[in-house]
């Protein structure tokens, strides 16, 4: 493991608002370098740089329709605390330790599946791309797969963290002529403009709903 982002999902489990069973190794937006591969691994080799995401089986009707985030067995594969075959991913002194998203990236070294991994170029800074496996696909996937804006439409995104910025970028890619970013942090709004926002609103200083209606 080279780096892993901390997500609200990790925090919810840490606080006890959700549980995979304790003890648990969290982390589900990791990036690292492959050290070893199993005999059946076909797409990766030692030394490859990868970003890790969730596991989907590629066999159910949702996966076959190209919607792996809605995999029929998503919960079993990612949120059961064990591997998809029901065996422990981690143990200590023979006792079960729960894993998260079949990657548990808050580790020095982890074990995962080739279906969790996306290979990236070696010149990409792995410290910066971990969120692509979680926050980015959450934000962009919501826009591409659910909202499905058409060219010429307007999209407004409230909150310009990793998820919000990904949604905003997806809006631009979809052809929205107005992409409105709403936040209370000026530096975030500046970043939103750099990434393609046509309009920004500081909701600490003005009513965002009224301003959006005017736009």
TrEMBL record:
Keyword Plastid: no
Keywords: Metal-binding, NAD, Oxidoreductase, Zinc
Keyword NAD: yes
PROSITE patterns the UniProt entry points to: ADH_ZINC
Cofactors: Zn(2+)
All copies of domain Alcohol dehydrogenase-like C-terminal, residue ranges: 162-213
Domain (Alcohol dehydrogenase-like N-terminal) ranges: 2-120
Annotated family: Belongs to the zinc-containing alcohol dehydrogenase family.
Record PANTHER family: ALCOHOL DEHYDROGENASE (PTHR43880), ALCOHOL DEHYDROGENASE CLASS-3 (PTHR43880:SF12)
Name of the featured protein: Aryl-alcohol dehydrogenase
